[in-house]
Design brief:
This protein has about 280 residues and is an alpha/beta fold. Helices cover about 60% and strands about 10% of the residues. The chain has one domain. The protein has helices at about 25-35, 35-50, 60-65, 70-80, 90-105, 115-125, 135-140, 145-170, 170-185, 195-210, 215-225, 225-230, 240-245, 265-275, and strands spanning about 1-5, 10-15, 20-25, 55, 85, 235, 255-260. It has a five-stranded parallel sheet. A two-stranded antiparallel ribbon has the order 1-2. β1 and β2 (about 10-15) form a beta hairpin.
């Protein structure tokens, strides 16, 4: 939920709060729920009843840019408008930097917030009294092809592939990575949310699974498995990353309950029954 405050100096302050359960849907899950009438109605009615929050990522927007079926896009946006929704910053380095600032005594809002897109939209529209998330998303879709974002992801994936190829053939690096993962599990979380620990464990997971091929799409999923799992209550991910989370030793409430496609019925059950 967003609340606008008019400051004495004329500036406008936009404040976001999160009703629970806080939910994050991987791209397949957003489509599977929004485009299936039964699942959509069940999701919307439960989220409304519980006053939950759906958090969306830039990755979700990139996938929407790729969709050619305008009716499907409209169905997804209609579902988003039916519930409380906001954005989440899946760039774990940004989030960890903010967490470090809080540990040093700096004042920050929720480190996972991605409020810039909304603030930019409202500023461009001269701060309208009423607006919807679909207004913001449609503006992004209409003014970006996603090619630049895709190119950036592809370049990142290329750099990481070279890095993985080098490290995986170095027994010393592989051993050190394994030892760091053990130390991470032993020490526990440094900040109240285990974002940095999830990143360290996820990277070790990729390194140690030497046959795992990490193309651009897989790196998207890598990002899904860190900040959303650290800052949300319920998350739907691909099976590979749901399996990874189950192996970290981290449990709710330190991390989200994570479900894969086969466990979507369990997700809906938890959506109704989860107690905070």
């Amino acid at each position: 939920m967003f609340v606008r405050h008019q400051l004495d100096d004329g500036r406008v302050l936009l404040v976001e709060s999160f009703g629970r359960p806080i939910v994050y849907l991987d791209n397949w899950a957003l489509n599977d729920i929004a485009l299936d009438a039964f699942r959509r109605d069940r999701f919307v009615s439960t989220m409304k009843a519980r006053k939950g929050t759906l958090r969306l990522s830039v990755s979700n927007l990139v996938e929407l840019m790729k969709q050619a079926d305008r009716q499907q896009i409209s169905a997804i946006l209609d579902m988003i408008d039916s519930i409380d929704a906001g954005f989440i910053n899946t760039n774990f380095m940004d989030v960890i930097t903010r967490e470090n600032g809080i540990l040093r005594g700096e004042v920050h809002e929720n480190p996972s917030q991605e409020i810039g897109l909304i603030r930019d939209y409202l500023f461009a529209q001269n701060w309208p009294e009423s607006w919807t998330m679909s207004d913001v998303i449609r503006t992004v879709l209409d003014n970006s092809s996603g090619d630049q974002m895709k190119e950036s992801w592809d370049q990142f994936a290329g750099r990481m592939e070279k890095f993985l190829s080098r490290v995986r053939f170095d027994p010393k690096d592989m051993s050190q990575s394994k030892e760091r993962a053990k130390a991470t599990r032993k020490k526990g979380k440094r900040y109240e949310r285990p974002t940095r620990e999830l990143f360290q464990l996820a990277f070790n997971f990729v390194l140690q699974n030497e046959k795992m091929q990490m193309n651009s799409n897989e790196w998207h999923d890598f990002f899904h498995s860190i900040v959303p799992v650290s800052y949300c209550d319920l998350v739907l991910l691909d099976k590979r990353w749901a399996t990874f989370i189950s192996q970290t030793g981290l449990e709710f409430p330190d991390v989200a309950f994570v479900f894969d496609k086969k466990a979507i019925d369990e997700f809906f059950k938890s959506l109704v029954e989860l107690v905070f």
